[in-house]
Amino acid sequence: MVAAAPIVCSFPTASELTEALADFVIKAQKEAIEKKGRFTIALSGGSLPKQLSALAKRTGVKWDKWQVFYADERAVPLDHPDSNHQLCTAEFYSKVPLPPANIHTLDPALLDDLEELADAYEKQLIHEFAQKDAARFPVFDLILLGMGPDGHTASLFPGHALLSEEDRWVAYVDDSPKPPPRRITLTFPVINHAARVAFVAAGESKQDVLKTVLDKPEEGLPASRVRPASPGQLYWFVDDAAAAKVEYPKTPFKL
Ligand SMILES: O=C1O[C@H](COP(=O)(O)O)[C@@H](O)[C@H](O)[C@H]1O
């Protein structure tokens, strides 16, 4: 599988990063809608939803054309403080006119059975993608990821058996080292089939892991394994604090 080299853009301030990210998302949205009439995006939890806040002030966002999924979700009720959906609602959806019907949550009736929960979420993806694009794996227009200090991304954790999953679109973990332990996640084949994947990582706490992920990908941390197959492209939106130790070349941001 051929993958283009990641494009790493570093910004001096949080607001420069979030404004550039908003420009980038709007461009991805525009291209997708022009081609297919819809925009499929997967969001993460953690620090990511807050970084999308600049989109609330932008014109030109066709919210009714968005179909929003989760890169990972915790197996908790949708209004639970640990829920990525709850976090996205508080930090992002509450500020923008995104139709609730276009936001694809896990099925809260299935929380007791992780396998059923993951299967049901996979079926939501099949409904959205397989009939429309007839692909072996869904091709998201954009997947937005965060990265934990251990190098995990979505709910794909270092050393976990799920790192070698090759078939499933959505899988579950019941032993996440970061609480809560029970989660579902998109798998690497799905992430690496996306048209664009963008990591967002800011702050000094990400310095060491960002250096490892970008300068020593051979260590195989989960975030280093995100390498969308050509013509897909991987971007990193980072701030100068996070990028302080990174030797990998930075590219000035341009649309
Ligand atoms: O547990 C999770 O952590 C990652 C990274 O979070 P961050 O706070 O370090 O940005 C996040 O991307 C993922 O969605 C979440 O479930």
UniProtKB/TrEMBL annotation:
Quote one Gene Ontology molecular function term. 6-phosphogluconolactonase activity
A single GO BP term for this record reads: pentose-phosphate shunt
Q: Which InterPro entries match?
A: 6-phosphogluconolactonase_DevB, 6PGL, Glc/Gal-6P_isomerase, NagB/RpiA_transferase-like
Pathway participation:
Carbohydrate degradation; pentose phosphate pathway; D-ribulose 5-phosphate from D-glucose 6-phosphate (oxidative stage): step 2/3
Q: Which UniProt keywords apply?
A: Hydrolase
Q: Which reaction does it catalyse?
A: 6-phospho-D-glucono-1,5-lactone + H2O = 6-phospho-D-gluconate + H(+)
Q: Does the keyword Cytoplasm apply?
A: no
Broad enzyme group? hydrolase
EC assignment: 3.1.1.31
Task: Please report a single Pfam family linked to this protein.
Answer: Glucosamine_iso
Question: Does Hydrolase show up as a keyword for this record?
Answer: yes
Q: Which residues form the Glucosamine/galactosamine-6-phosphate isomerase domain?
A: 13-236
Q: What does this protein do?
A: Hydrolysis of 6-phosphogluconolactone to 6-phosphogluconate.
Family label: Belongs to the glucosamine/galactosamine-6-phosphate isomerase family. 6-phosphogluconolactonase subfamily.
- Which protein are we looking at? 6-phosphogluconolactonase
Where does this protein come from, organism-wise?
Answer: Gloeophyllum trabeum (strain ATCC 11539 / FP-39264 / Madison 617) (Brown rot fungus)
